Amino acid sequence: MDMKVQKKKLGMKERYRALTRDLGWEPSYRTKDELYPYVKYEGIRIHDWEKWEDPFRLTMDAYWKYQAEKERKFYAIIDAHAQNNGHLHITDARYLSALKIFLQAISPGEYCAHKGFARVGREFAGVGTQVACQMQAIDEIRHAQTQIHAMSNYNRYYDGFHAFADARDRIWYTSVARSFFDDAMSAGPFEFMIAIGFSFEYVLTNLLFVPFMSGAAYNGDMATVTFGFSAQSDEARHMTLGLECIKFMLEQDPENLPIVQAWIDKWFWRGFRVLGLVSTMMDYMLPKRVMSWREAFEIYGIENGGALFRDLARYGIRPPKGWEDAGKAIDHMSHQLMLGLYQWSFGTAFHSWIPSDEDMDWLSAKYPTTFDKYYRPRWNHIKKLAAEGKQYKNFGLAKLCQCCQLPTVFTEPDDPTLICHRETVYKGETYHFCSDGCQSVFEDEPEKYIQAWLPMPALFREQQGDIAAWMDWVSLRDGFDNGDYDGSRDQKHFKEWREIATSNR
Amino acid sequence: MAVKSIKEYIGEPRDSVGHFHGNQLLFVSWDRHLLFAAPFLLYVNPETRFGDVVSGPLTALLQPDPDAAAIDWNRVEWLKANQPWTPDFERTLAENGISHKDQLRFRTPGPNSLLNPA
């Protein structure tokens, strides 16, 4: 009688080797340069791809198992949210403005990150890198999908969610995130890793997901909290991949240092500018606020970022060029941008409002050196105009930065009373910037940024300034999706439905 | 460095003046008057008189600032491309040498009502 032999189970490391062993073949009739045409032109020198091991060594079966478990939990909560009228459990419908910006600007970015990782997974010549990038590509498309599903429940009841993809491509504030990802996706594979692996995952997601998801929890939005948790557990892996890539480049050849440093300078600043939108969500748009933008930046920017740069110092990396200017801006950026979002609210697919006296007191406690001095007088004046029936709308439209595409609302790093005006002439054409950081990014690669599609000039170039035609084109329903929250349909409906839900009417 | 690429790379400026139907873009801002969150983007014909741009669209846009009515245009100091500059109100934008996407800034002496001195 034959004895049944227990087959020895493979360990994680062996399984990973089994997964990857056939991917690293030696080409016989094509050269490696032909197979991987994009690995050299950026100037990065790699001598041994084997040196980069995927720190997570995640195999497909393990990946499916973890992610399937998370999906089950996610959809159970989303269903419960829909069935129990979860849209009435939030603090109030003002909160949804933050979600609308997130859906219009950030979720499509996740989809772009997916496309980018699928591409660089093919372009990198090392097996460990290829597999890790493919896994991240799947993560990113899943994030986009779960975000869209989580928020689709709100779309049944509230305005401003219905055309997020058009908004992403066509509206002026979403073009900030769009240009960030377009820039990354049109970069070479190594630069893409710095753009997404470092800037998006390290600089942005910490500041975006952690405080923003706590904000969702504080404001009773369990649907968003659920996708936040589901996505956040992948982010640690993504950050590690980004960081491993940086270390790998630096360890492979000392000649890589200046190239990597320039990318860190560029992508730190680009990421910081995208965070401008997040700062307004945190300081202004959450009815119940967890922490100020300033407090979040101190923890996730200064402390965590500082630790990261200390860690990289042994390779010769210094903190990014815009680090000091970023520090000077944190007491100002949310106020400066929110004042803009309010006065151009006829062109946004979300609502904004004048902060109440109570909100202003909170802002002045969180920004003791700046809010009362610089920003409260402006809000009070806007409030006075509104009381006189002259609600302030700035029909002047805005000058946009050629690089980050934000309206040029930011002031000089050392003078908060003067807007920062930067311009440069390239091949006879004038270009404007919001900061030294953005000007410097442009001047390193002018041929790339002169092609930027800027929504404000496009309104005149393509629509000859016809605002109604522009609204149709961006799928913005005037009087519903835009304007002041006070008097909006969102405000009215939320109040009515909440009263029905909590009384015997 | 003008873009690293695997083959020759030529970018076309997307917002050059030829795309604007005979008009041009002009940016104007009032220094230290930050009720206006960013410089105004104006869509103008280069044959317009400078004085008409000031008394027309610019004056209209400045109205919400409490100091707007007190502007004495004869005493305003101007900057073009961040350099001191003197306009001729009677002549056209083109005759004043104002090109597409130029940034004009102006400064007014006197108090700024929306800045808390405390």
From TrEMBL, chain A:
> What InterPro entries does the annotation carry?
Ferritin-like_SF, Phenol_Hydrox, RNR-like, YHS_dom
Q: Which UniProt keywords apply?
A: Monooxygenase, Oxidoreductase
SUPFAM superfamilies noted in UniProt: Ferritin-like
Q: A Pfam family for this UniProt protein?
A: Phenol_Hydrox
The domain of life for this entry's organism is Bacteria
User: Where's the YHS domain?
Assistant: 411-453
What name has this protein been given in UniProt?
YHS domain-containing protein
Query: Which source organism does the UniProt entry give?
Result: Thauera sedimentorum
From TrEMBL, chain B:
Q: Which InterPro entries does the record match to this protein? A: Phenol_hydroxylase, Phenol_hydroxylase_sf
Q: Which domain of life is it from?
A: Bacteria
Sorted alphabetically, which Gene3D superfamilies does this protein's record hold? Phenol hydroxylase
Name the chain's protein: Phenol hydroxylase subunit P4
Naturally occurring in which organism (per UniProt): Thauera sedimentorum
